[in-house]
Amino acid sequence: IESIKKLEFSLTHKLVDGKPFPMFVRGVKAELQIDSSVFRGHSLYIFSQLLSRVFNLKVQINSFVDLVVKDYSSQQELYQCSQNVGGKTLL
């Protein structure tokens, strides 16, 4: 928890492959800046996936959360967690 330096939210939208035609879905982009030196091995990946899962459980129906994890010091993107709406992967 102490490794979290900054968390920002903004609105976004993604394309869902639907039948009979694709459609856009509104969602929230969460940008998490973290001190990656605190984590060892795969623990940062597991922490990112856990946060993504928690955010997606709390989001409104027909919406999503796009979690992007960046290193606080270098601003390099470390992970972008996959999103889904109703079990369907977004494009």
UniProtKB/TrEMBL annotation:
What highest taxon heads this organism's lineage? Answer: Bacteria
The record's section on Pfam families has: T6SS_TssF
Which source organism does the UniProt entry give? Acinetobacter baumannii
Instruction: Read off the InterPro entries from this record.
Output: T6SS_TssF
Q: What is this protein called?
A: Type VI secretion system baseplate subunit TssF
